[in-house]
């Protein structure tokens, strides 16, 4: 998927999730304040307080998408089928200020599972969340 196509996806546009970098074993997204990024209770509370930062709902969604996308950079789709997120955890250690950067890096990719590390920083460069995800893989490729 091209960055432009990614950015134009309705969910990504609504939440302010933008493609930033994509390479072998990692992806990086930016989460920017957008009209729909106030979705969820934290966004409504922050909007009422005048905070222009992005919501943790948008960030958490971006992390989930990034985990999947990062795994997609290291598998051979002719030999392996992506099967779904097996587990995802994310620990917030600070409130986001301004836009956020989400980076997902594949730590291990086996025959049936991939492990991915996620780190989120805000506009100040401060780590606001970190976590990991595991993604299920199935031997056997997708039809050509």
What coarse outline follows from CA principal-axis ratios?
A: globular
What Rg do the Cα atoms give?
A: 16 Å
Quaternary structure type? single chain
Which CATH architecture would you pick? Roll
Q: Mean of residue pLDDT?
A: 86
Query: Ranges with pLDDT <50 over ≥5 residues?
Result: 36-41
Kindly, what is the distance between the CA atoms of the first and last residues, rounded to a whole number of angstroms? 17 Å
CATH superfamily: Hotdog Thioesterase
Taken together, the total number of domains comes to 1
**Topology as a string of helices (H) and strands (E):** HHEEHHEEEE
Helix tally equals 4
- Helix residue percentage: 25-40%
| CATH class identity | Alpha Beta
CATH domain fold name: Thiol Ester Dehydrase, Chain A
Strand content: 35-45%
Topology:
Layout: H1 3-8, H2 10-15, E1 17-23, E2 26-31, H3 41-48, H4 56-72, E3 80-92, E4 100-109, E5 113-122, E6 127-139
Antiparallel strand pairs: 1-2, 2-4, 3-6, 4-5, 5-6
Structural commentary:
There is one protein chain. The chain has helices at residues 3-8, 10-15, 41-48, 56-72; strands at 17-23, 26-31, 80-92, 100-109, 113-122, 127-139. The protein has 144 residues and is α+β, with helices and mostly antiparallel strands. It has a six-stranded antiparallel beta sheet. It has a single domain (3-139), classed as Thiol Ester Dehydrase, Chain A (Roll). It is globular.
């Amino acid at each position: 998927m091209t960055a432009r196509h990614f950015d134009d996806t309705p969910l990504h546009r609504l939440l302010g999730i933008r493609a930033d970098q994509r390479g072998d074993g990692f992806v990086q997204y930016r989460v920017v304040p957008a009209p729909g990024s106030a979705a969820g209770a934290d966004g409504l509370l922050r909007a009422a307080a005048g905070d222009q930062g992005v919501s943790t709902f948008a960030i958490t969604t971006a992390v989930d998408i990034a985990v999947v996308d990062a795994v997609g950079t290291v598998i051979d789709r002719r030999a392996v089928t992506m099967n779904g997120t097996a587990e995802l955890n994310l620990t917030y250690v600070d409130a986001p200020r301004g836009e956020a950067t989400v980076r997902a890096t594949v730590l291990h990719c086996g025959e049936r599972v991939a492990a991915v590390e996620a780190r989120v920083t805000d506009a100040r460069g401060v780590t606001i969340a970190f976590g990991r995800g595991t993604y299920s893989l199935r031997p056997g490729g997708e039809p050509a």
